[in-house]
Amino acid sequence: MTTIGNRSSVWCAGRTVNRQDVEDFLYTEADILDRWDYDGWLALFEPGARFEIPTTDYRPGWSPHESGSFVDDDWDLLRARVKRLKSRKAHAENPHSRTHRLVSNVRLSEGTEDSFKVAASFVVHRARDGHFDAYVGWYDHVLVPTEDGLRFRLRRSVLGHESLAAGARLSFIL
Fold this sequence. Notes:
Helices cover 21% and strands 43% of the residues. The chain is of the alpha+beta class. A hairpin with a 2-residue loop joins strand 1 (9-12) and strand 2.
């Protein structure tokens, strides 16, 4: 997404979705992730969705598939990631890091007949192995209104960092 509006609502899938609905959805997701409830997190996606974290040299308008990604998960890889993070095989997160997420500056824009675009800023604080790190950036999401509430069609986390510190790892969901 290169342009995001500052709408208080969008018309999508035959209904109006307002910014408060989207903010509540993103805040709920942040709480779910901070509790390490990966089944709950996966339930926020529509089947066939994607999860992406482009590399730090990413620029809006670039394809993360061509420019490189830390994460570039299709639906099958996303489900496999959740399964691994819930298992003891996720050594880098056993025990889990302590995280605390802040989401702000939520902006909505038109999309297609059945989806719309959302941008938001984030800060994820992470405590692990005696270190405290802050990851900052923005979200570029595509959301779909469903009978069960909003769902991700695309969840993209774009880091605002010029680079990650030596030894830094994204072993948790950003």
